[in-house]
Amino acid sequence: MLSTRTIAPSVPRAGRAPFGVARPAGPRRSLQVTRVTDITEAVFEEEVLKASTPVLVDFWASWCGPCKLVAPLMNQIEKDYGGKLKVVKIEHDSNPKLIAEFKVYGLPALIVFKDGQAVAGSKREGAVTRAMLEQYLAKHGISK
Amino acid sequence: MLRAAPCTTRLAAAGSRGSRTRLVVRATADAAVIESKNLEVMRKFSEQYAKRSGTYFCVDKSVTAVVIQGLAEHKDTLGAPLCPCRHYDDKEAEASQGYWNCPCVPMRERRECHCMLFLTDDNDFAGKEQDISMDELKAGIGGI
């Protein structure tokens, strides 16, 4: 079982159980995220803009079905790209400055960051298959 | 922390008897899932609208379940089933305006549902079903 990594996890509201929050190891349920780095605005510069590798940012919402669908794929992609790609998740409601800065409205939304800035044209909204995601990454200069 | 023993507690919205925000809290082994009064309403709506529009639920019905829960929560809190797969600068204003109230304008005009609740049969993620039982719904929500 992969360990979980969470940096300043963002829990949107009290009383909810959003799927993106890191959970302790245990029986795995379908679509449960077991390796995820949730970040917030507070650490965005450090974790994304100053990262030594390209970063794929996945903006998500608690009750967004497609967000849940792609969550395991995000985990798997980071693993499969073996250090060439970092993946982070950002919950939209609790990080409004980032939402406004990158004009994220449809969720899930993917943006690739390289060398301290968003790659032009890399913002993509909606669910993706594995093949679509690899194609999208290749288009923006990231391959395995 | 709530225990695994079945337990149901009815919570009325603060300060309001017979409010539309009446909720039921159901204890689960891991976390409380806030069950909306509007969950059944949105479940039935989703089935009826899928049939009326000739669309299908996602092959992974937990996606369907999550979206229906999100719609129900928005109906509880905003009075309208605002799309749960988008970020809004002002949710109340958006709910009043109506463009993104389910079924949203893109769905009504072009059968485009980026929540993946209503999928045309040529969509890679479309299943063959237009029904979802309350048991399936709860299982899909509880699996988060």
TrEMBL record, chain A:
GO molecular function: protein-disulfide reductase activity
Keyword tags: Disulfide bond, Electron transport, Redox-active center, Transport
Domain of life of the native organism: Eukaryota
Signal peptide segment: none
A Pfam family annotated for this UniProt entry: Thioredoxin
A single Gene Ontology CC term: cytoplasm
Transmembrane is among the record's keywords: no
Chain ranges of the Thioredoxin domain: 11-142
CDD domains in UniProt: TRX_family
InterPro entries reported in the protein's UniProt record: Thioredoxin, Thioredoxin-like_sf, Thioredoxin_CS, Thioredoxin_domain
Protein name listed in UniProt: Thioredoxin X, chloroplastic
UniProtKB/TrEMBL annotation, chain B:
Cofactor(s) this protein requires: [4Fe-4S] cluster
Documented EC number(s): 1.8.7.2
Superkingdom of origin: Eukaryota
Keyword Oxidoreductase attributed: yes
Reaction(s) catalysed by this chain's protein: [thioredoxin]-disulfide + 2 reduced [2Fe-2S]-[ferredoxin] + 2 H(+) = [thioredoxin]-dithiol + 2 oxidized [2Fe-2S]-[ferredoxin]
Family: Belongs to the ferredoxin thioredoxin reductase beta subunit family.
PANTHER family: FERREDOXIN-THIOREDOXIN REDUCTASE CATALYTIC CHAIN, CHLOROPLASTIC (PTHR35113:SF1)
Complex formation: Heterodimer of subunit A (variable subunit) and subunit B (catalytic subunit). Heterodimeric FTR forms a complex with ferredoxin and thioredoxin.
Described function: Catalytic subunit of the ferredoxin-thioredoxin reductase (FTR), which catalyzes the two-electron reduction of thioredoxins by the electrons provided by reduced ferredoxin.
One Gene Ontology MF term: oxidoreductase activity, acting on iron-sulfur proteins as donors
Name of the featured protein: Ferredoxin-thioredoxin reductase catalytic chain, chloroplastic
A Pfam entry, by short name: FeThRed_B
Enzyme category, top tier: oxidoreductase
Keywords from the named record: 4Fe-4S, Disulfide bond, Iron, Iron-sulfur, Metal-binding, Oxidoreductase
